[in-house]
């Protein structure tokens, strides 16, 4: 199989996994038909006006489960579940100490508990705790690859691979330095090495290290846009765009100060700058399409198919844009 064929097969697998599950959930929550194009960019209901909603203390990460937004509330040791179309709170659920990031596996929410050395698995439908699994020191980033959950243990400079159905650890893979955010591109795992100026690319099937690629200073979070990988560089005040197939640098773009979280909305990249603003960039060329002041130390970003959600660390809120 050629590299081009392999890349295409991985992309197809990613689309089949993510969009089949999310389309099914969307259909349950919205009686209108969901067409293929709508699902491909995660748009299945109309946007509401921008506003902010209270959550727990010091929210960090955010995730979307196809119908609801979840936030990790670092100082409350909880996650908040909110209905995406109107922001109604559906529950606050206890997890470990200092929850910081979340990932959705198609049925469950996984939460990294930074000071508990664990991840918590919650059933997305009702928030029931399905298990808490020890992973390592200072777990921070988390992502699901279709079968396995990958957790970045910042304190151990490693990534741990867990079987999603039972939480069994099936691999540990060393990183060059302390690390933070993580993303899946359909074939590979990308990790931001926050203690340096690189990202690491690991083959998801076996954890093989496929290379280190230079970005900016203090890389924090990673997102995949279907073709390229984007990385926030907190100390460079930039985001870097890398070609996923080979890691080639396609550009470094200035954004709001101290960029942390980011998300792709099907066309654009949204970046939360912890100094108080969110930057919107066009994904195909990195052009800045807008800078939006939020205040409250924005950090985590999630896309719900129609709106961007941003956690505001200093005001204990999440904003819907």
How many helices in DSSP terms?
2
The CA-CA distance between the termini, in Å, is 43 Å
Question: What strand order characterises the main sheet?
Answer: 1-28-27-26
User: Gyration radius, to the nearest Å?
Assistant: 18 Å
Instruction: Compute the number of strand runs.
Output: 28
The general outline is: globular
Structural class: mainly beta
Reported for the largest beta sheet, the result is: 4 strands, antiparallel
Order of helices and strands: HHEEEEEEEEEEEEEEEEEEEEEEEEEEEE
> Beta-sheet strand percentage?
over 45%
**Mean pLDDT, as a whole number?**
88
Q: Give helix % range.
A: under 10%
The quaternary organization reads as single chain
Low-confidence stretches: 2-8, 11-49
Summarize, please.
The protein has 321 residues and is mostly beta strands. It is 10% helix and 50% strand.
Structure commentary:
The longest helix is centred in the first third of the chain and has 27 residues, at 3-29. By secondary structure, this protein is mainly beta. The chain is globular and about 45 Å long. 10% of the residues lie in helices and 50% in strands. The strands form seven sheets. Strands 1-28-27-26 form a four-stranded antiparallel β-sheet, with no helix packed on it. It is built from two helices and 28 strands.
Task: Compile the SSE list and pairings.
Blueprint lengths: L2 H27 L6 H5 L10 E4 L4 E6 L3 E6 L4 E6 L5 E6 L4 E6 L3 E6 L4 E6 L5 E6 L4 E6 L3 E6 L4 E6 L5 E6 L7 E3 L3 E6 L4 E6 L5 E6 L4 E6 L3 E6 L4 E6 L5 E6 L4 E6 L3 E6 L3 E6 L5 E6 L4 E6 L4 E5 L4 E4 L1
